[in-house]
Amino acid sequence: MPDELIHADPVLLSLFILFGFSFLVQMVYYWGIFLKVGKRHKLRGMRHKASGIREEVSPTIDNQQSTIDNPPGVSVVICAHNEFHHLSNSLPQFLEQDYLLYEVVVVDHASDDDTPLLLADLADRYKHLKVITIQRDLNFFSGKKFPLSIGIKSASYELILLTDADCRPAGNQWVRLMQEAFSDDKEIVLGYGAYEKRKGILNALIRYDTLQVAIQYLSFAMAGMPYMGVGRNLAYRKRLFYQQKGFISHYRIASGDDDLFINQVAHRKNTGVQINPGAFTYSEPKTSAGKWFTQKRRHLTTSSHYRFLHKILLGLYSAAQLAFWILLTLLLIWKFAWIVVLSVLLLKWVSQYIVFGRCMKQLQEKQLIPWIPLLDWMILLIQVLIAGTNLITRPQKWK
Q1: CATH node for 62-305
Q2: In the chain, at which end, N or C, are there fewer CB atoms within 10 A of the end residue's CB?
Q3: pTM (2 decimals)?
Q4: What is the pLDDT of residue 54?
C-alpha cells in the first residue's frame, strides 16, 4: 500500500474509499447484469439472425410446426392523435407483416388533421385494419391510457402487441418474432424500440440514452428482475391486462402505460425478452433539444412509482455513477493518489467499452462505440438536470 494512503488525511482517505466503492458498484452492474445483453449476441446472436428463434426457450420441432400451421392471433394496437404524417409512412408497414393471423387496431384519439381520412382509406384496402374513433378528448385517464385501454379492449386476439404511431417495424417479420417469444409461461415480451440514425450530437445523445435504458431493462429482465418495458415495442396477453384492471391503479399519472404497468405485473417467470434485430421498432427522433428534454422529463416522472426494490437497484446505479465523477474530480483537485485514481478511471472506461460495446453490437448501435465516455458523461449531466427540473414542475400532456 502506498505511503500516501497509509498516512493520508482521514477525510481524503474516506473520499478515496467511497470513490473505490462507487467504482465497484458500477463494475457489478456492468459485468454482472448489463453484460447479459451482450452475451446473447456473442453466444446466440448468429443463430437468431439466421432462424429468428425466440430468446428464452427454443421450441421443439413439433411446437414449431404447430405454430406455423395454427399461429396464435396477434392484435397490434396503436394510439394516434394528429399523426397523419407518421401513419402515412409507418402504418402500411405494420399492415404488410408476414404473419397469417393478425390485425392492426388504430385508436384515433380526437384527431383534427387528416388522420381520419387516411385511416378510412387504408381500412378500405386492408381488411385486417380496425379503426376505433374517439370523437372527443375524454379525460378519464391522463396521457394516452384511455385510448390505449379502448384499443386493447377492442382487440380480437389474446396476444396484444403495442407500438406507437411514429414507429416503424424493422421488417415484415416483426409480428412473428415478437409472437415467438411467448410460451405457456411467458405472458409478457419486452422488445427494443430504437431511434433512427441521423447526423448531429442530439441524435447521438437520443440514441445513446435509449440504448442505456434498453440495456438496463432488458438485462434486468434476463436476470429475473423485470421492472419496465417501452410502449414502442411491447407485448403481453390480454388477460393480464384485465387481471390488473388495466391502468386503474395509476390512471392519474400522465405516463406509465408501459413501464408502470409492466412494473406491477412482471416477474421472473412470466417475462420474456426478444432482441432479434428483426423484432426491433424504429422511431423518428426529436430534432429539437427542448422537445427531447420535455419527453425525457415525462418519462422519468414514473420511476418514483416503481416497486421499492427496483427503485433501490436503479437508484444505487445512478448514485454510483454520479458519486464516481464527483469524487474523481475532488481527488484529482487535491492530487490525492492521482495515479491510482486515473488507473481506476481507465478500468471503468475499458469495462464500458467491452460491456456496452457488446450490447451496442447486439442492438445495432455499434457506430456509437467510440463515443461511449463522452456520451455517458453528457447523459449523466442531463439526467441530473432533468431530476432537478422535475422537482419544480412536472409535464402532464401526452401530446
Answers
A1: 3.90.550.10
A2: N
A3: 0.88
A4: 37
Q: How many CB atoms lie within 10 A of CB 42?
A: 12
> What are the C-alpha distances in Å from 155 to residues 77, 94, 134, 149, 266?
8, 15, 15, 10, 21
Distance CA 61, CA 132 (A): 39
Judged by DSSP in three states, 296 sits in helix
> What one-character-per-residue DSSP string does 56-77 give?
S-PPPHHHHHHHHHSPPPEEEE
**Given the C-alpha cell 405472458, which residue does it identify?**
187
Q: In which order are the strands placed within the sheet that holds 167-169? A: 167-169, 281-283, 193-195
Which percentage of the chain shows pLDDT scores above 70?
86
Q: Where in the chain is the domain with CATH 3.90.550.10?
A: 62-305
The Cβ of residue 200 has, within 10 Å, a number of other Cβ atoms equal to 10
Burial of 212 (0-12, 13-18, 19+ CB in 10 A): middle
pLDDT digits 0-9 by tens, 240-274: 999 998 888 777 776 777 889 999 999 999 999 99
Cα 386 to Cα 394: distance, rounded to the nearest angstrom: 10
Q: What is the pLDDT of residues 103-138, one digit of tens each?
A: 999 999 989 999 999 999 999 999 999 999 998 766
Instruction: Compute the C-alpha angle 189/165/246, nearest 5°.
Output: 50
d(CA 208, CA 194): 10
Number of Cβ atoms within 10 Å of the Cβ of 393: 8
Rounded to whole angstroms, the Cα distance separating 256 from 246 reads 12
CB of 76 closer than 8 Å to CB of 154: no
As a whole number of angstroms, the distance between CA 110 and CA 120 comes to: 15
